[in-house]
Design goal:
alpha/beta; 12 helices
C-alpha cells in the first residue's frame, strides 16, 4: 500500500550535454542525436570523447563572488536548483528556511578537482595549491551551496549510491516530507567526471565504448552491437512538496512521486547479478509503494547503459515484470552516462513524458537485440498519453533504485 501523503513535483531544473535548462534538454533528448565530441583535456587517453555541458559560462551564470570555491559539479547543481525553485514559483526570501530540506547526491563529487590539486602539489608544492581545495572536492558541497544560496536550514544530505545517487536522493527527500521533517525538499543529483583519471579507469574496466565509428553513434542502448557506455555530465533537481501543501498555495504539480524502491545486489562491485532478481525486487517494491499493479505501468525509462551485461539483465527484467510491453526509452543514448546525476535527470525526463504525452526515442537504435522482448521507442518520439511511469537506476556496487511517477 502507498505510504503517507501524496508528494508533488512542483519544480524541475536541468543542465545537461544537450541543454542548459529543462526545456532545451527535453528538446535535445526528443531529437535523439547525441552531442558526443572529442574533449581536448582527454588528449592522450584511451577514451578521449564524451558528452559534455557546453555553451555556458558557468562562473557568469553563478554570478557574485562565490563561484571560485565551487567545483564544476557544484555549479551544475546550483544552477539546476535555481531553475527548479523558480519553476515551482517559490521565493527563498519568503519561505521558512527551517522547513526546507536539500538532498543532492553525486557519485564522484569533486574527484576531478582532487586530481588537479594532487598534480599541483606534486609539481609545485603545497603553497601552490588552492585554499579552496577541500571545498572543490568533497561530495556534500552541492547540497551545502544550494542550502547557503537558498536559505534552506532544514535537513541537508548528500547520498552516494553510484549511478543510482539521483534516484536515491529523490527517495530520501520523499521520506523527509512524508515524516514531516520538512515542507519543501530540493532534491536531485549532479556529476562532472570527464577528466583523464576517471575516463582511463572506465576504459580499463571494460565498461566504456571504443573510439570507433561515428562518435554520435557510440552509445547504443539495447542494440545487438552495443559496445559500452559514453560518459556524460550534468545535473537535475526537483522541488518536492506534499500535494496538499502545493494545492494550498495554488501550485500546479508537474507530476506526483508515487513510490520508490531500493535494493542491493550484494553480488559484485561492477557487474549486475545476472539473474536480475534483486533489481527486479526494487521495481516491485516501488510498485507496491505506489499501490500499482505491474500492468498499470505505461512507460519505462530504463537505466540502459549500452554495456552488454547491464542491458541484457535489464531487458530480461523488463520482460518479466511488464509482460504487456509498455514503451521503453533510454536517454543515455543521447546524454551519455551522467553517472550519479543520471537517476535524477532520467526521473526528470519521465516527469516531462507524463506531462506532455511524449516518449523520447532511444538514440542509435533501429531495433533492440533479437533476444530482447521489449518495446523500445526508436527513431521518432512516441506520442501517446502516459499516466503512470517508472524510472530505473542500477549502479556500481549493486545499488538499485526505482522511482514511480504519475500524472496528477
Amino acid at each position: 500500500m502507498n505510504r503517507g501523503p501524496a508528494i508533488a513535483v512542483t519544480g524541475l531544473g536541468m543542465i545537461t550535454p544537450v541543454g542548459n535548462d529543462t526545456e532545451s534538454t527535453w528538446k535535445g533528448v526528443c531529437a535523439g542525436v547525441s552531442p558526443v565530441r572529442t574533449v581536448p583535456a582527454l588528449e592522450g587517453c584511451t577514451i578521449d570523447f564524451a558528452c559534455t555541458v557546453d555553451g555556458i559560462d558557468l562562473d557568469a551564470a553563478i554570478g557574485g563572488r562565490t563561484s571560485f570555491r565551487m567545483g564544476k559539479y557544484v555549479k551544475f547543481a546550483v544552477l539546476a536548483a535555481r531553475e527548479a525553485v523558480a519553476d515551482a514559483g517559490l521565493d527563498p526570501a519568503q519561505w521558512e528556511g527551517s522547513r526546507v530540506a536539500v538532498v543532492v547526491g553525486t557519485s564522484s563529487g569533486g574527484s576531478a578537482s582532487l586530481t588537479e590539486q594532487a598534480v599541483v602539489l606534486d609539481r609545485h608544492g603545497p603553497d601552490a595549491t588552492s585554499p579552496s581545495g577541500i571545498l572543490l572536492t568533497i561530495p556534500n558541497m552541492p547540497a551545502a551551496e544550494i542550502a547557503i544560496q537558498l536559505r534552506a536550514t532544514g535537513p541537508s544530505m548528500a547520498p552516494c549510491t553510484a549511478c543510482s545517487s539521483g534516484a536515491t536522493a529523490l527517495s530520501v527527500a520523499r521520506d523527509l516530507l512524508v515524516t514531516g521533517q520538512c515542507d519543501i525538499a530540493i532534491a536531485g543529483a549532479t556529476e562532472s567526471i570527464v577528466y583523464p583519471v576517471a575516463m582511463t579507469g572506465f576504459a580499463r574496466s571494460g565498461a566504456a565504448a571504443r573510439a570507433d565509428g561515428e562518435p554520435a553513434r557510440r552509445c547504443r542502448p539495447f542494440a545487438a552491437d552495443r559496445a559500452g557506455l559514453v560518459m556524460g555530465e550534468g545535473a537535475a533537481v526537483m522541488v518536492l512538496e506534499r500535494a496538499d501543501d502545493a494545492a494550498a498555495r495554488g501550485a500546479a504539480p508537474r507530476a506526483l512521486l508515487a513510490g520508490t524502491g531500493a535494493t542491493t545486489d550484494a553480488h559484485h562491485p561492477t557487474s549486475p547479478h545476472p539473474s536480475g532478481a534483486v533489481a527486479q525486487a526494487a521495481v516491485e517494491a516501488a510498485l507496491r509503494d505506489a499501490g500499482w499493479a505491474a500492468e498499470d505501468v505505461e512507460h519505462v525509462n530504463a537505466h540502459g547503459t549500452a554495456t552488454p551485461m547491464n542491458d541484457a539483465t535489464e531487458a530480461a527484467l523488463i520482460g518479466r515484470v511488464y509482460p504487456h510491453r509498455p514503451p521503453v526509452t533510454a536517454p543515455k543514448g543521447v546524454l551519455g552516462h551522467c553517472m550519479g546525476a543520471a537517476g535524477a535527470i532520467e526521473a526528470g525526463l519521465t516527469v516531462l513524458t507524463l506531462q506532455r504525452g511524449v516518449v523520447p526515442p532511444i538514440a542509435n537504435l533501429d531495433a533492440p537485440a533479437p533476444e530482447f522482448d521489449i518495446n523500445c521507442v526508436t527513431e521518432q518520439p512516441l506520442r501517446q498519453p502516459i499516466r503512470r511511469a517508472v524510472s530505473h537506476s542500477f549502479g556500481f556496487g549493486g545499488h538499485n533504485a526505482v522511482i514511480a511517477l504519475q500524472r496528477p
